[in-house]
Design a protein that fits this description.
Radius of gyration: 18 Å
Order of helices and strands: HEEHHEHEHEE
Number of strands: 6
Strand content: 15-25%
Structural class: alpha+beta
Largest sheet: 3 strands, mixed
Distance between the termini: 44 Å
Length: 155
């Protein structure tokens, strides 16, 4: 198992740049890690943003899966990857955090639990973080595509 974090980052960056060049996009990918657990790969804004993001971010998630699988196949210990195109995920998380603040206020004012619509794991992490910062309890309930969060007052 290869424990070299810098080598994993460079491999992931080069692999993603090779995928992008296959689509005719020659650009530098900004690669970093903040916690030595997840490699952050940021693709700058280009004329292919819509294509690279895909419907509801599906293409980004597919590129993420490919890079992560390549790292695993090369025996890197660090193989969790987050691919973002033109800060799409960051902006989406900011919008969701704003909505989550409204849900938190609703729970704080009424004292009643609030069920949020089903969402993916990344979105749930954002809602959990906002609820936790406000001192509320949040639980993920349900399975698969029905998995959603219930925000409740702290006990």
């Amino acid at each position: 198992m290869n424990e070299d974090v810098e080598a994993a980052i460079q491999y992931a960056k080069k692999y993603l740049e090779d995928i992008l060049s296959f689509f005719g996009l020659n650009t530098d990918v900004y690669a970093t890690t903040e916690d030595n657990e997840v490699i952050e790969l940021n693709i700058p804004s280009t004329h292919l943003n819509g294509f690279l993001i895909g419907q509801r971010g599906e293409t980004m998630r597919s590129m993420q899966f490919l890079v992560s699988s390549a790292l695993k196949n090369q025996n890197f210990a660090m193989c969790r990857v987050n691919v973002d195109v033109a800060e799409y995920k960051k902006q989406r998380a900011d919008r969701l955090a704003s909505a989550a603040e409204d849900w938190v206020k609703h729970v704080q004012e009424t004292g009643e639990p609030y069920e949020v619509k089903p969402m993916n794991a990344a979105d749930r992490r954002t809602v959990h973080r906002v609820a936790s910062e406000a001192g509320l309890v949040s639980d993920s309930v349900g399975e698969g595509r029905d998995r959603h969060i219930v925000i409740s007052p702290a006990a």
